[in-house]
Each structure stands twice: as structure tokens, then as C-alpha cells.
């Protein structure tokens, strides 16, 4: 609970003051994320021998909720670093890769990015067009990645690329690309509906020479690396969605207690009290599903299906809860100053990234039918 309190304190005192302006100007929270890293929130679950906090996934969910209540753009940076980049490197990386690439992220000195999506490979992730041609002691990397979170702020990028087309998904490799490698270009920044202050970019690779020692795992292990890592990533995004919903609920409860209509506080109207009850019930259900997936992961039990269920449900209820929060605020809810309109815009992406709701249903239904 100390972790939750520390995250709440940071979110309310450091993130909240500038969140409206950052969203308005699509400005990355450079200073705030630096502080977040110094406090250890970018390497929460990493073994202390690699500079991390050695915490469990449950603590990570609690911290993600508090950060997401206030600034979902900062939360997605935190989620990608912790559950996609760090976890994958710690689980599958070599000792040298852990010292060189994982430790600086875990210590909060560098930011990581996970580069799977392409113009024609979003949901259909096996259709990678980016190529990594084997040239002996290096791979020659060519292609384009789209919608990459931390695109311009990261220094360490895990890039998925096809090295053997005939082998299909078994020919995909996961390569670590460093900022500054020749031929690596950070392309256009996306102008987004929500999470506007997170830096989402296109990345271009033109004949980038990636040393063989930067491949994570065995030759052709890249797709399995991506799938296993995304399982944990989905717990991060479930926490983000649940946090957005829980932040909107807190704001709606406070507003309903202070605003009066027809001679009494809003919450004394049954129409509003019942809305709050529905919102609170769904937030609690999302929290429990997310904590369940986290707890299974902590016990080293299979959690893929449960992570997808948590992500699916939390992102769906985030739509409902944030929309109701705007409704309760009435006209005030439609303007920036009251925060809920931003939360409603931010909620939408949680149904799309790290696997759309439809992809989660594929994962869940396949797991049920295989039982
Ligand atoms: N763990 C380990 N291996 C897995 C796995 C898992 N959870 N899921 C699948 N695999 C393996 C399969 O066993 C199979 O390997 P074999 O053939 O050797 O047995 C291989 O992967 C291919 O699996 P499928 O046949 O099931 O592949 P598919 O084409 O039907 O697709 C999918 C599966 C689940 C739909 C997958 O494509 C998918 O998850 N798509 C969504 C991609 C996604 O989530 N992208 C998010 C981008 S990252 C992001 O958004 C980060 C951010 O910025 C916030």
C-alpha cells in the first residue's frame, strides 16, 4: 500500500498541475517522467541486481491505477517500459543485454519502446513486412513501424522483423535497436484524439546494421517473445483503463456532492446516485479482474486468458464510466477544466492498443475452447 500512496502522491502533486496544458499542446511530460524514473516507477518489477525495485505485479497494478487516474499519457509510457520492454528483456535477454539495455531503463535513466505494429500489421501481427536480413555478424534492418509509444523519447527499441519469409511467424526476430544507429529515423508524430501528450511516432529503418548480439532469444523466437510479453502488457493496459475509469468516478463523486440542482446536491437525485452505483460496481469488477491476472502472474501460473479478460473488460467499462462522468458534470464536463472530457478521450485507446477488444476475444475464446 506504500507504493500506491507514493504513486498517488506523485500523480496528484506532480502530474495533475500541468496535465491539462500538456494534453492541449500534445507536450510530452519530459521532466515529470524523469522524476517518475528516479522514484523507481519505470523499473518496478525488475530484479534489484539490474537496478529495479523487485516488486510484484500486484504493486505495479496499484501504482498504474493511481498514475492513470490523473495522466494516462504518462501511464502508457510507464506501462510500455515496465511490462513490455523490461519484462521481455529480463525474461529472455542475455546477461549482457540485461546489463546494457535493461538496467538503464530500470534505473530510470532511459526509456524503452516496443515496435511491433506496422502500416499493414496491427492486429494481424504475424504479417511483419519489416525485414532483418542475416549478414553474418549483423542484421540489415529495413522497414517502417507505426503508432510507436515513446517513439521520440526512447533510447532503446525492441523491433520485430522478418528474417525468413518462408518460415512465417517462426522467421521473426526481436532486435534491440539503439537511438542514434545509422539509418534509424524517428518519423512523424501522430496528432491523436486522446493520450495526446504521449509521443506516438512512425519509425523508419533504412539499412540499419543491428549487431547479432542484439537479437533477443534464439533465431526466429521474435513472435513468441512478442506474444508472451504482450500477455503482461495487457495487465498494464487493463490497469491503465481501470485507473482512467476510477479517476473519472472520483471526480464524478466529488462533483455530485458539491453541485446543487433543484435545491439539493446532485447525488441526492436518485438518477445520479444510481449512475454512481453502476460506475463504482464496474470499476471494482475491473480492479478485481486485473488484480487476479496480476496475482496469477506473480505466482508464475498461466495468466494469458485472464490478462485478456481484464484488458477487455477494463477498457470497455472505461468507456461507460468516463461517458457517465461527463454526463454527471453536464456542460462543465464538456470543457477541459474539469478533466473528465480528457479521461473520456483517453479511455478510447485502451480498446485499441496492445490488442483490440476483438483480439482479446480471439485470445479468450481460443483458451476456453482449448480447455
Ligand atoms: N504465448 C506464446 N506463444 C504464443 C502465444 C502466447 N500467448 N500466442 C500465440 N503464440 C504462438 C503460437 O503458439 C504460434 O506458434 P506455433 O505455430 O509455433 O505453435 C504462433 O504464436 C502464432 O500463433 P497464432 O497461430 O495463434 O497466430 P495468429 O496469426 O492467429 O495471431 C493473435 C494471434 C493473438 C491474433 C496475435 O496476432 C495478436 O496478439 N495480435 C495483436 C497484436 C497486438 O497486440 N499488438 C499490440 C502492439 S504493441 C502496443 O500496442 C504497445 C503500445 O504502444 C501501447
- Report the portion of residues in β strands: 15-25%
Helical residues, percent: 40-55%
Mean pLDDT: 97
Small-molecule binders here are: acetoacetyl-coenzyme A
Strand neighbour order, sheet with most strands: 2-3-7-6
Q: What's the gyration radius in Å?
A: 21 Å
Q: What is the N-to-C succession of helices and strands?
A: HHHHHHEEEEEEEHEEHHHH
Give a count of the beta strands, DSSP E runs of length 2 or more. Answer: 9
Q: Specify the structural class.
A: alpha+beta
Number of helices: 11
Question: What is the first-to-last residue Cα distance?
Answer: 36 Å
The profile of the biggest β sheet is: 4 strands, antiparallel
List the uncertain runs: none
Which overall shape is indicated by the principal axes computed on the Cα atoms? Answer: globular
Describe this structure in words.
- There is one protein chain.
- By secondary structure, this protein is an alpha+beta fold.
- 52% of the residues lie in helices and 15% in strands.
- Strand 2 and strand 3 form a beta hairpin.
- Helix 9 runs antiparallel to helix 11.
- The model has no long low-confidence stretch (mean pLDDT 97).
- The structure holds acetoacetyl-coenzyme A (CAA).
- Acetoacetyl-coenzyme A binds next to helix 5, helix 7 and helix 11.
Defining key terms:
371 residues, alpha+beta, 52% helix, binds acetoacetyl-coenzyme A
Amino acid at each position: 500500500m506504500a507504493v500506491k500512496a507514493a504513486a498517488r502522491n506523485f500523480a496528484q502533486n506532480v502530474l495533475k498541475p500541468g496535465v491539462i496544458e500538456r494534453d492541449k499542446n500534445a507536450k510530452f511530460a519530459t521532466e515529470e517522467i524523469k522524476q517518475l524514473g528516479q522514484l523507481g516507477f519505470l523499473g518496478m518489477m525488475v530484479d534489484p541486481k539490474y537496478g529495479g525495485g523487485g516488486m510484484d505485479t500486484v504493486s505495479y497494478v496499484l501504482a498504474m491505477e493511481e498514475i492513470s487516474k490523473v495522466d494516462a499519457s504518462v501511464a502508457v509510457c510507464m506501462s510500455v517500459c515496465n511490462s513490455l520492454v523490461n519484462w521481455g528483456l529480463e525474461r529472455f535477454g542475455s546477461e549482457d543485454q540485461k546489463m546494457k539495455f535493461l538496467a538503464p531503463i530500470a534505473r530510470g535513466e532511459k526509456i524503452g519502446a516496443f515496435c511491433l505494429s506496422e502500416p499493414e500489421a496491427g492486429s494481424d501481427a504475424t504479417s511483419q513486412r519489416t525485414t532483418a536480413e542475416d549478414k553474418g555478424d549483423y542484421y540489415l534492418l529495413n522497414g517502417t513501424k507505426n503508432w510507436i509509444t515513446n517513439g521520440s523519447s526512447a533510447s532503446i527499441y525492441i523491433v520485430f522483423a522478418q528474417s525468413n519469409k518462408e518460415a512465417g511467424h517462426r522467421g521473426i526476430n526481436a532486435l534491440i535497436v539503439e537511438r542514434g544507429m545509422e539509418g534509424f529515423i524517428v518519423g512523424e508524430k501522430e496528432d491523436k484524439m486522446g493520450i495526446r501528450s504521449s509521443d506516438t511516432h512512425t519509425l523508419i529503418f533504412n539499412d540499419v546494421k543491428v549487431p547479432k548480439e542484439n537479437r533477443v532469444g534464439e533465431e526466429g523466437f521474435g513472435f513468441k517473445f512478442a506474444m508472451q510479453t504482450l500477455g503482461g502488457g495487457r495487465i498494464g493496459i487493463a490497469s491503465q483503463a481501470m485507473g482512467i475509469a476510477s479517476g473519472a468516478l472520483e471526480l464524478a463523486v466529488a462533483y455530485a456532492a458539491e453541485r446543487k440542482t433543484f435545491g439539493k446536491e446532485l447525488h441526492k437525485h436518485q438518477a445520479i446516485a444510481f449512475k454512481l452505483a453502476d460506475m463504482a460496481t464496474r470499476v471494482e469488477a475491473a480492479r478485481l479482474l486485473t488484480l487476479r491476472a496480476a496475482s496469477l502472474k506473480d505466482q508464475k501460473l498461466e495468466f494469458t486468458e485472464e490478462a485478456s479478460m481484464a484488458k477487455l473488460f477494463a477498457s470497455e467499462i472505461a468507456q461507460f464510466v468516463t461517458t457517465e462522468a461527463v454526463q454527471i458534470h453536464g456542460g462543465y464536463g464538456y470543457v477541459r477544466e474539469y478533466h473528465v472530457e480528457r479521461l473520456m478521450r483517453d479511455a478510447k485507446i485502451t480498446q485499441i492498443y496492445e490488442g483490440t477488444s476483438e483480439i482479446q476475444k480471439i485470445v479468450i475464446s481460443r483458451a476456453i475452447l482449448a480447455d
